[in-house]
Amino acid sequence: MTGLLLTITAALALPALAQPARPAQPRQPAQAAPPPTEAAMPATTLTLPEVLQHAVRQSPSLATARIDVEVAEAGVLEATGLEDFLFNATGTYLRQRTEPQENNPFGADEVDQFTGSVSLRKLLWTGGTISLTAQGDQQKSRLSSLTPPIAGTVSTSSITAEILQPLMRGRGEAATRAPRTRAQLASEQARLQREVAGRTVVRDLIAGYWEVAYAWADLEIRRSSLDLARERRRLTDASVRGGATAPTEVLAVDQVIAQREEEVVVAELAVTERSLELRRLAGLEIEPDQIDVKTGAPLAAEVRPVEMAQVVGQAMERSPEIAVLESQGRGAALEVEVTDNGLLPRLDLRVYGGPLGSGEKIGDAIESTFQDNGYQVGADVVLEHWLGNRAASGASHRAQAERQRVKVNLADVRRQIAQSAAQAVALARSAEKRMQLSRTAIDLTQRNIKAETGRFELGKSSNFDVLLRQEEHTQARLRYARAAADYLRASAFLEALTGEILGRYGIKVE
Fewest CB within 10 A of the end CB: N or C in the chain? Predict the structure, then answer.
């Protein structure tokens, strides 16, 4: 859990606005335009819902989370087996033969014994068990040492009800059904972890999608800037040929063209890198003809009001990470209760009883069981205790320490979520203000370009000044695009924190 803050903080960190351009050597005025480059492979256009739906189907983390849920649910089914009735049936046959002892009136030297029993047992909520057992026994014996030999058959049958109840260790529902409770908590935690995985995957995909959109916006802006510089070169060339402008003015334009061409190359590489990253996150194919991804939506942010207190409250209330730790806390409390119970001595009471019957044949014995007054009753008490009891004491101390650790982790995660929510809100508000300021800057730089161009035509300015105004306009557009991408990314993080992200995009992780 301690890595949660580092992951969210790193993902929220602002990427660099642009790569710094390296100065280029000026070209000669008469130099021709660069030859056209090889045509780029067409980009695959994908909408955000298409990317998300594909990723949900292909995501290894979500697939693993689903399997974990299936394993946990199977564990619950397995643990609830302790509530089942246990049926048992046994049958035995015994033959004994010994050498006859002359004139020995005691003991048979030939014995054939048949025994069969069936029983049904059930666990009680008190921690004890109740069972019902029906048993039949037939013994044939012969004493051949006497004259004449004596032979006989004796059959018995019984029906016995038995209750075995722990009076100290193992008593109560908590200790008895601890395996079932552990399995249920594990299933609950697996479902919550699946929710965490779903939110994380969708959040990262949305952030990656808008990074691709920003990379395309950056490329288009820089291509537009290059086109403006080339148009300035054409106009300057014409002015030089007409004698109105000094030839040295062309050098400044050529330097800027070279610089902006390099920026276009860097921006094209950024598109490819961001596209490959998105393909990896979404599980999309990467083939020689399937590299670049074109976003199906423009880089535009719909600003919505964000309240810090509301976001933090919803993040705390709907956080699956907190719910996982709370579930672990219940499991830790259960372990404390179970291990404390293990410190007690074992004191078990067994009470049993039921009718008995006997006869020469097994059928006669069974009939006698229900008609005669034969019966048996009994009781056993077992006391057992380890002197020193260090194993149980160690288990108890361990369980208490585990419960304390869960409490510490829970408090830490609450602080991390509050901090992450505050950072996401701050980023969203900052991006909103930056978009507003960038819009104003874009409008002003457009006016300055017109004014500077007019001064240049009157001979009161230079190409350097005109190109500088163009660069200011380009940077303003880039800042707006960066702010819009940051706002969309911050919105995704906020929706992931408040639990709205899956429903907003119609994603089901179950």
Answer: C
